[in-house]
Amino acid sequence: MADITIRKAEGTWTVRAGGAVLAESKNALELSEPGYPDVIYFPRGDIAMAFLDDTDHRTTCPHKGEARYFSIVTKSQTLENAAWSYADPKPDVARIKDHLAFYSSDTVTVERV
Predict the structure, then answer these.
(1) Which domain holds residue 104?
(2) CA torsion sign, 69 to 12 to 93 to 62?
(3) Disulfide check for 52: which of 35, 70, 86, 97 has CB 3.0–4.6 Å away?
């Protein structure tokens, strides 16, 4: 098993895209996995899910399970597969169930405020 750690992300975290705040949470989780940058997972209840469309894209992680992807739909563009979630994560990472993570990019900002 990979040495994955999950802890409460300190402070308030936001996700912005297309000029809109898609998520703001004081209950985000920070997942650390060797060889990868830390990832912030936002509780689904703190995300404006109306901006997200479920896609057919799936990937499988041997340590976390199957990831489902979401596109972010803004007024000006659709950002394909810009967020992901593990609907049924493996037991060791069960805390990330009902959370989504977002790829940081030129068009999506994930930051602590």
Answers:
(1) 5-112
(2) positive
(3) 70
For residue range 50-63, list pLDDT tens digits in order: 999 999 999 999 99
Please state whether beta strands 78-85 and 99-102 pair in parallel, antiparallel, or not at all (unpaired).
Answer: antiparallel
- Whole-angstrom CA distances from 22 to 15, 46, 47, 52, 76 are 5, 9, 6, 9, 15
CA–CA–CA angle 112, 29, 20 (5° rounding): 45
**Rounded CA separation 105/83 (Å):** 11
Domains contained in the chain, number:
1
69-90: pLDDT as tens digits: 999 999 889 999 999 999 999 9
